[in-house]
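Help needed: design a sequence for this.
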């Protein structure tokens, strides 16, 4: 369960703490940190430490196009100037995906979702994921993951990326990835 402070921090971002796909790291004073360390493969130095638990205590994972969790994304509470952090690793080729989408990506024989949503950035992804079960979140470096997703041919895809230069860039990558398979693409505008 999330602490009251973590839940309030998510609510301040208009994210429902009961439904957001995030968890809280153990308290930095907890003895589990004496033995618990997340390491990058081939590296000796811990890359999630008590420092992260103290300053960025909420965690979700970026996945690859197969739905496998690959990289933790940490979120600060309360919100601070640098509110999100990928600790010491590259996010290239990764994407956020709700648990329902991770299960679908991991099981190619599973029935694909009829409706998918694409949000830009961690906060918008978390916000959309509290409302819909099939949400991807894109960020800088997600283009390859978008291209490798086995898009369902008859799916309706709602593009929730921002109405700005970066959002249009993500929308263009998305349109290119969908073009061979998905006949219907919808760009959602927040302004009308």
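Sure. Designed sequence:
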């Amino acid at each position: 369960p999330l602490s009251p402070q973590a839940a309030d921090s998510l609510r301040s971002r208009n994210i429902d703490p009961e439904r957001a796909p995030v968890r809280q790291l153990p308290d930095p004073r907890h003895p589990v940190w004496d033995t618990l360390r997340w390491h990058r493969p081939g590296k000796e130095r811990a890359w999630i430490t008590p420092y992260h638990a103290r300053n960025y205590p909420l965690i979700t994972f970026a996945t690859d196009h197969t739905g496998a969790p690959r990289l933790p994304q940490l979120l600060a509470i309360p919100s601070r100037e640098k509110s999100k952090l990928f600790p010491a690793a590259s996010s290239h080729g990764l994407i956020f995906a709700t648990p329902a989408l991770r299960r679908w990506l991991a099981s190619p024989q599973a029935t694909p979702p009829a409706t998918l949503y694409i949000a830009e950035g961690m906060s918008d992804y978390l916000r959309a994921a509290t409302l819909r079960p099939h949400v991807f979140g894109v960020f800088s470096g997600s283009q390859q993951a978008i291209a490798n997703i086995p898009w369902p041919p008859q799916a309706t895809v709602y593009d929730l990326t921002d109405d700005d230069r970066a959002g249009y860039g993500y929308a263009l990558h998305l349109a290119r990835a969908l073009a061979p398979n998905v006949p219907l693409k919808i760009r959602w505008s927040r302004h009308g």
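The first helix runs from residue 4 to 12.
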